[in-house]
From TrEMBL:
SMART domains: HTH_ARAC
Keywords: DNA-binding, Transcription, Transcription regulation
The protein's name: HTH araC/xylS-type domain-containing protein
InterPro entries membership: AraC_XylS_family_regulators, Homeodomain-like_sf, HTH_AraC, HTH_AraC-typ_CS
One function term, GO molecular function aspect: DNA-binding transcription factor activity
Domain HTH araC/xylS-type: 165-255
SUPFAM superfamilies on file: Homeodomain-like (SSF46689)
PANTHER family given in the database record: ARAC FAMILY TRANSCRIPTIONAL REGULATOR, HTH-TYPE TRANSCRIPTIONAL ACTIVATOR RHAS-RELATED
Amino acid sequence: MACDTDQLELRDHRFGRINRRMPIGPVQWPFHDLFWVHEGRVAISFPELEAKLELVAPSGVLILPGTQFQGATLGAFATASICHFAMAGEPAGPGYALPNPDEALHLQNLIRLAMHLARRNRPDELPRRKRLLLSLLDGFDLAGIPDIPTADEDRLTIAWTQAGQNLHRMRTLADVAALLGISESALRAMHRKARHTSAGEHLRELRLTRSEELLVSTDKSLATIAAEVGYGHAATLAAAFRKRRGKTPGQYRHWSNPFA
């Protein structure tokens, strides 16, 4: 989706609250729709693609032109923004793209800046707004567009990406399965068939990998890290970490930062 600012046409950029009495769609836009959830949880489905997403703030989806979609909040309410834009040579739908792993929080900051500039609506800032939009698009996984992600592997990738961004909510495999709208047993079977590995082991590796990142890059306590990656107790994380990594979390933190 390479383009320059001259090929972009900015349209609506709005922010607001949605609730159970105000469903999203069904709708099919002739332009791009960058839908972003700032607070709460929203379910989005794509009937043509037989795909469903659960977006847990901060997260969103870039919906291609000509893609049918509909949705609703999963709680009492959610706050969200939409950014509509058109671009020369834009791919036809159906299709959508998700944020790159671990970049959702940074994208949210860019989107807030984009909304700030949109509210000011100064003609001299139009080139800046377009450059900002191109930076936002760099934060989405556009490699598969306009492929239709209906294969099990594509559905798993979407679900695991969402799970990795929201590990604190993924207490069990059932929570991951809910992102796909299937049962835990169906997720286990789908994962083993597509990847020939255990879904439970994959979730455990996501937790431990994120734990490694937090141990190295922060001074958070083990209890705080355990909660952020979905473990109920620090002791549970410590036991899993030592078994899989051969070190205690404290030893790993010291080993990773010899100058501490």
